[in-house]
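From the pipeline queue, job 12 of 40. The input is one protein chain; the requested action is below.

Action: predict structure.
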Amino acid sequence: MRSFRGIALTLCAFLSVGLVATSAGASRDASFAKQWGLAKIGAPEAWAHSTGQGVRVGIVDTGVDLNHEDLAGRVVESISCVGAAGDPAKCNGSAQDDQGHGTHVAGIIAANRDNDLGIAGVAPNAELVVAKALSAAGAGTEEDINAGIKWVVDHGAKVVNLSLGDPNFVFTSLLGTGMREGIEYAWSKGAVPVLASGNSNLLGLGLGSSNYGSLNALVVGATGHDDQVAEYSSPIGSAKWGILAPGGSGDGNKDHDIFSTFWKSGQPNAYEALAGTSMAAPHVAGAVALLLAEGLTPEQAIERLLSTSDPKVSCDSCRGRLDLARASAQDRTAAKEPETAQ
């Protein structure tokens, strides 16, 4: 069993908290002005069309703070898959976060909007289905992660956020990710996997994070506050579907990272600013949820996001940076009727 270390330690190495001005004004949440990423992708404009109502988004991570004020009512099902050894039937116990990373991801996706608290998520009315697969140290196994993916999909997730990365960069680049089993299971069941590209742009060699060519997942690289690819962001490589999204600059400036909900021992209702492709992926997961709620199929939602991405912000093998305002405003006559949430 190959050891797997989560992004919680490898991608979220840059921690900061601070205030940054933004032109977005579509929410009365106390810290909305800190969310420059939402303005970059045009989330407030997209909310006129969809807020992700009824779409379940799976999070496989360190868990989520189940008592956080800004996630109240958003987590509809949760469990721990730590020690499940690849079998979702063996998932058992609490998904309470004890590291912070998963709570940060959850807030980016679906923090409550207009509750006068904290922040707003990209899809503020989406439902979260959470599988804890990483420990308090941010470590886990590929088997537990695959069990977590299967569990959230079996419990109705139509999008699965995977802000996770493999520590053995060179090995994975050549042979592919051990998460393939879970990712392909999700896709076969009609769910869209969203995978962080990683923070391992080693020596600037331009190697892709993994052998992603045939993997049915949206692979997400990170942009910084300057709307350019962040230096730490691993190349998307041969990904079938690649896109960029705000992940924070990671340059030491506390205003340039992604502000979201967080878990800290002894500090209820915490918030934190982090940088990494871990933060970029949930922006895309939330965007997919908005389009699915409008009635698009998984294939239509992916193509819509790719075809409307901003080409002025380009990467090695993707069309550009997520532009949710443009994606949501595009003619939706080809979409089917919205599905009933499971």
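Job complete. The chain has one domain: 3-329.
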